[in-house]
Amino acid sequence: MVKKIGVLTASLIFGLGMQLTFAQKILQANNGHSHNDYKQEIPLLTAYYAEMGSIEADVFCRNGALYVAHDSTEISGAATLKKLYLDPLAAFYRHNGNHPYGNAKAKLQLVIDIKQDYEQVLPQLLKEIASYREVFDQQKNPNAIRMVISGNVPEPDHFADYPKLISFDGRPYINYTEKQLSRVAMISDELKSYTEWNGKGNPTQADEVKLKAVIAKAHQQGKPFRFWATQDSPNTWIVLERLGVDWINTDHPSDLKRFYQDQEKLSYTNPAAYPVYTPSYKSDGQKKRAKNVILLIGDGMGLAQIHAGLMANHGQLNLTRLKNMGLAQTSAADAGNTDSAAGATALATGSKTNNRYIGVGPNGEKKTNLVDTLAGLQIKSAIISVGDITDATPAAFYAHQLDRSMSTEIAADLLSSKVEILVGSNLRSFLQNPDKDLLKKLGNQGFQVHTSFSDFKQQKNGKQLVLLPDSATRPIYKGRGTILAQSLSKSIDLLKNNNAGFFIMAEGAQIDYGGHSNNLPYVVTEMHDFDKTIGAALKFADQDGETLVIVTADHETGGLTLLDTDIEKGMIRGAFSTNDHTNIMVPVFAYGPGAEDFKGVFQNNEIFFKILKAFGIK
């Protein structure tokens, strides 16, 4: 028997193939218990390929053989325990070099749930497994498949009547002797015996005390614990894990596997919060013309991404300090869902267009963008991205092409744009452009071309084309650093002395990348980087008093849902419904002169006209 060390610290070498304490378990798919496995469309194999650590077969003894069925009326001549479970498991075990799974750390127990007459079933079971005893004999090989008897079992004082080849599923209300307990593989009970909780939300505090107590008792005895008759949902699994169970009861093993195998991508903890800026609000909502406008686009950023960032930063974001907010509908001209091309074109030109179109209308006609419109009033502009500068969102503010993939054509469109500063990656599309003289021509137009951020930081004036190597715009979690906030600050420094004012669009491009890859840590670290950029914009707006800051998104990506958060720990867990864009409305936040015009619900292309109005342009 496992030595007892304390209420929640009894060590267990089981389940994950490593030594863990009950208080420090890390659950994964191998902690799944495939309940009523016979009910699966493909018995055994569905659970086996989901790498469940426990598989339950309900059995009856009829005419000298064991049959798998949940009810005696379901007994079928072909559905024997030997054919459905014992023979295949033995074959897997031998194929895997005397391990249940190809993953040598993964363990397996076969739970034989005896529906009636254990006196007949157990002798027949021992007879049927005799030909491959080594597969189920953990005394000879600790990696063997454990045989656990549940349901209609002998009284504890008769456990010793059966060989140690088999163990038993215990109950928390039975007082076992130490010898009897040595034959118990796990402790199980029905969830409804302790709570009316239906798997939604959390159990009541009183019920949670009862649930934790029964689990703790099993752990004091050095045994893993399982509740049966639990709901099958991510929320239920999360709560059961938090309560301390060792086996997750499931009728959907494939879903459970997907949930646990992606946890590195679906959970994130930020131990230390970064500080946020508290605005003065002196210019916020003033009914006067804005001299400058900073448009910050979190590509793929929806409310869930914002809330994930908020919880992971322990309840603080620069963004959530903004008081004026609205919601923008993002549909494209040719579809309910929009991509970055149509979404950004709506923001940049005030015209809805087809997906993939850059700076042109649904019929392919060129649309004048904000940069060129404002240039006519001597207002200078900068376009910044921590991604490919020829990608859809930044491109919509300076290019006009029928397909977002036309990277070299988009690069060449810079020749006819009025933008003063362009910062992002994809040097290749400029260097290897069909127009071999593109960079020379851009130089003739006054652009100073830089291929490092440090060079850009040294500039004092003039037009700037900053074409960073792809490594410089790698994800934050791979070490990019705060280039977005620094690029914004540098662009402000270069443009702030322009008497007519400036317009800057800065894109947090890689929130979208994280959404497409269904990677929550990626999303949140990019969200935090974007939020630090928002903080830099707000600081300048307060210093200047004439700057409107707008924060929005071109669309939401991933259909992110948050399943669990801990604001004190900065912990979040989530799930994604798609790897593509969704039609969910996106938030619009505003701060500074004219900010109140961004309240309410409106189409995304209206933001273009609201920006013109902020500048005093009708």
From TrEMBL:
Belongs to the alkaline phosphatase family. Pfam families: Alk_phosphatase. The active site is at S340. Mg(2+) binds at D299, T393, E507. The keyword Zinc applies. It comes from the Bacteria. Keywords: Magnesium, Metal-binding, Phosphoprotein, Signal, Zinc. CDD domains: ALP, PI-PLCc_GDPD_SF_unchar3. InterPro entries: AIM6_PI-PLC-like_dom, Alkaline_phosphatase, Alkaline_phosphatase_core_sf, PLC-like_Pdiesterase_TIM-brl. One of its GO terms (biological process) is lipid metabolic process. The keyword Iron-sulfur does not apply. One of its GO terms (molecular function) is phosphoric diester hydrolase activity. Binds 1 Mg(2+) ion. Zn(2+) binds at D299, D391, D512, H516, D554, H555. This is Alkaline phosphatase.
